[in-house]
Amino acid sequence: MVWLVWMLFGTQVLCSCLAAPAGQGAGAALLSPSCDDAAVEEAADLALRQINADREEGYVLSLYRIVSAREQPQEITGSVFYLILDVVDTECHVLSKKLWKDCSTREAHSTVYGQCKATIYINQARNIAHLSTYECTLQPVPRRYISSICPDCPLDGSPTQPEYRAAAVRSLAKFNEESEETHYFSVLNVTRGSMQWVIGPAYFVEFLIQETSCSKSDSVADISMCEPLPPEVAKIGFCKGSVVNSRSQEYVRISCEIYSHQDPATEEEDKEANQTPGKSRQDQQASPSDPDPFSPHLEKTVGWVKILPPSDEDITYHDLRESQDEDKDRKPVPPKAVGSAHSSDGEKTQVNKPDLTKPVTGPIILPFPEEPSLSDSCPGKAKQAEGILHPLITRKPAAV
């Protein structure tokens, strides 16, 4: 009888464990909060900030709308959010470290748009927001849409075309002549280029510049021959220039922002970041030496942004999935996911299942859910005025 009692008791304990609240641990059912929920809005804001902060090239992405949100409550505190976001690019380069809300979006004819999938852990109690993975697929607005609303607008071309490089060098010469910098700058690379016929061929360029070792107190015939300063001390800048040619004259314009490696953000941006849970800069996360036993052990953010070539067809959610499938070798896998994963160098490694008998030391992050939000409020409302982008971006997603 004793063994029967113990067996019944053990069965009761097992059943009580299986009946534990669904919001606990790695086996928790995913919730489908409203896409307009304040916590989801905050998670999307912080995820996009950290996506932009993690990148070293390209333009700051701005939130157009929240497409899908799934939430996984954690056994400790906080939740992991699995987000799908419609995004558009802005006029700010990522090296500016500006917040996406402080950047102006582009005119519709020159916009790059698409979607990002992001996994972010939010812990209000510990003031932590950590972006685990992200993947974004973007493309320029289809040319057939541009021709229908603005047939005379400048058409974007490949930044590698020699005429855009020449326009960048020509406009930078004006900056070097007029600026109060102590050294000359040279063109690092052209990031965007477009052409339009005005009174003659007009070239519009956006490009990065780097500080060289040549002093402006010396006469330099060819700036391209100047050696760049060491990376730890050299200034980097972002410029917008134009060169318009007529039969009798050349019109050159240039405006540049110079960034310091030591001070990429303004005091206002830092203040705003400090007022949000999990300050958006990864170096402000909890220290691994924190004595708190529930201090999360957070892995480095893994992610990528892919820009598709110009096309006359608009991308759909299905197209994004196909494009992402092509990038399986570099597709981010959550560090804490159950099963196999890929390390930062692409090598396959084994990840052990969470041992729930030991104290939880970090968030349990699952592979990105295949099923989008079940909430009727998703996709959410557009954050920007409707225009040509509205029919291109706003569409109900298929299963990821």
From TrEMBL:
In the UniProt record, does the keyword Methyltransferase occur? no
Segments for region (Disordered)? 262-305, 322-382
Q: Which GO terms describe its cellular component?
A: extracellular space
Choose any GO biological process term that the UniProt entry carries and state it.
regulation of macromolecule metabolic process
Q: Which domain of life is it from?
A: Eukaryota
Polar residues bias (residue ranges): 274-288
Q: Quote the biased-composition stretches of kind Basic and acidic residues, using this chain's numbering.
A: 322-332
Compartments, record wording = Secreted
Record's keyword annotation contains Iron-sulfur: no
Give the signal peptide range: 1-19
Which Gene3D superfamilies does the UniProt entry name for this protein?
A: 3.10.450.10
Keyword vocabulary terms for this entry: Disulfide bond, Glycoprotein, Repeat, Secreted, Signal
Major localisation: secreted
Pfam families this protein is in? Cystatin
Q: Which GO terms describe its molecular function?
A: cysteine-type endopeptidase inhibitor activity; metalloendopeptidase inhibitor activity
Residues in domain Cystatin fetuin-B-type?
Answer: 24-137, 148-257
**Protein name as catalogued:** Fetuin B
